[in-house]
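tool=predict chain=A
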Amino acid sequence: MKIGVYGGSFNPCHLMHKRLVLELLEKNYFDRIVIIPTGNFYKKSNLLKGEERIKMLEIMFKDNPRVIISDYEFKNNLICTYRSLDYLQNMYKGDELYFILGGDNIKQFHTWKRYEYILDTYNLLVINRVGLDIKEEIEKYSKYKGNLLCVNLDLDDTSSSVIRECFYNGNDLDAKKYLDNDVYEYIIKNGFYHKDYKPKEISKPMTDEEFLKEYNSDMYEKMSITTDITLFSVSDISKNNYRTINKKAFSVLLVKRTTPPFMGKWCLPGGFLSLDETLLDCAKRVLFTETNLDDIYLEQLYTFSEIDRDIRGRVLSCSYLGLVDKAKVQDKLRDNAKFFNISLEEENDIITINFKSDDESFTSKVLKIKNQYGIYSYKAIDNNYLAFDNLCVIVRSIKRLQNKIDYTDIVFHMMPEEFSLKELQLVYEAILDKKLLDPAFRRTIKDKVIKTDNIRIDGGHRPAQLFKYKGEYND
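tool=predict ok
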């Protein structure tokens, strides 16, 4: 069965809407047409509530079983064509869906959310009109997997905004010529679009108990939430001799997946949120279960919500940034968990990330994208080793950490209880990936540390005075 899907605000529905639908049905383009008015938050002036627009459509197409009116978008407060098509396809499994689109809209179709997904997954029927040249768009969009039909219907340019303006100015009879008679009478009866129209107030507010009695959570789409943890550490680099210049390695903890999806690839410790736990509790549980580490400093980093970020379905990830002194936990790790030393190389908008452990190394790349507000996001462009979108999570975590160590004391979570100033400086340099001037660094850090009575003696080097962190963390 072929089903047409006709979306719009229908504010109000008028005779050209009716003629378009009936002509497509009479000419057997479709077996049925589903009309789906937009959600209530759609930005149009004098937008009636979805219930009223639904009612007018039902009046206009009464006794026509081939026309179905859907309240999906207004009940879910959205205007999102691809989601509506997914919803309808789930209802009409095995049927062909065609989204009905006006010729004017096809010229702007490339600006619609996930328009390429619509073109690859569903079909389009474009209503052309005299004087509008859409050959370029038809040729371009015909290359996608979905069918694209172009239909010429002799329709005029009736506009719902003109009808609303007529009512607003008191010219009811001028509006009547554009409307189905029964729809016109319904508008007049309720005073819609008139200058003094106000939506009816609910005389008796619904109590929470009454609301919950009628509430049906199945009206809304479900999604899953995970927590992913980027656990960073800084550690000594092995030296061939004691005179080698000291340098530290910046590392991240990865876990090798043992089950699909992405079996055999590396990923961050992560897992699904249970209904009986908070996000932080979930992060702690996941970290312990997958790596055997607990009592680790964690702070919430960012929520990753890209539509197709997880091949298992609609999954949001609330990521956490973790810091630890690797020397304290290395021996506790599970067999499939491993710290990888990481370094970044930036050239223009391409960031190359190098990962290296004792027995494995690989390189991945991301594209750095800046939006109109100057906010950066990241897109993987070369990634054969990390699962899901974990590469982008790692890059964003590194950038956040590099930014935070300038104005917080977060770095001390990675330090032993006592340390030398040189040791602390090397940690800063490893994270920032640049050399710091000794005098400037010591001026910056002097109010954050306190000198102890202890001294460390390393072979071939002068004794080093040891310090400890002073005060509480201001993370």
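The two ends are 59 Å apart (CA to CA). Residues 390-404 form the longest helix (15 residues).
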